[in-house]
Amino acid sequence: MDQPGYDYHIDIPGTTIFDGKQAMKGYALNKMCYDFNRAENREGFKADEEGWMTKYGLNEGQKAAIRSRNILQMIEEGGNIYYLAKLAGIFKLSVQDVGGLQTGKTTEEFQEFLKSQA
User: Fold this and answer.
1) pLDDT per residue over 103-117, tens digit each?
2) Rounded to two decimals, what is the model's pTM?
3) d(CA 93, CA 101)
4) N or C terminus of the chain: which is more exposed, having fewer CB within 10 Å?
5) How far is CA 23 from the centre of its chain?
C-alpha cells in the first residue's frame, strides 16, 4: 500500500537499489552464493567455475561479471551484497575491499573513511 510522501522508486545516481525487481533478476546468482555457506560448495566452485555457474542457471551477464571478478557488475546483475560476500571471499576480497569499490575509493581510503566515522 502506498504511503503519502514516500517515493517507492528512489533514484540514487550510481547506485543499484536492491528491490523486488533486482531480487528476481539475481535469484540464480544469489542462490549460488548462498550455497557458498558450505565449504565443499566453495571448493567445487573454485574447481569448476563454468560448470558451477551453469548448474545454477546464471545468465550471461552474471557469468561475465563473475569471470571478470567485477563485484559492482554482479550487483547490477541482481546480486545482493550479503550473498555476494561469500563469493568475494572466494576471490580473496574483504568486505572493506568491496566497500572501497562501492564508494570509488581504494581499500586504504575506505578504511580511513571508516576510522574517521568512529
Assistant:
1) 889 999 999 999 999
2) 0.80
3) 10
4) N
5) 12
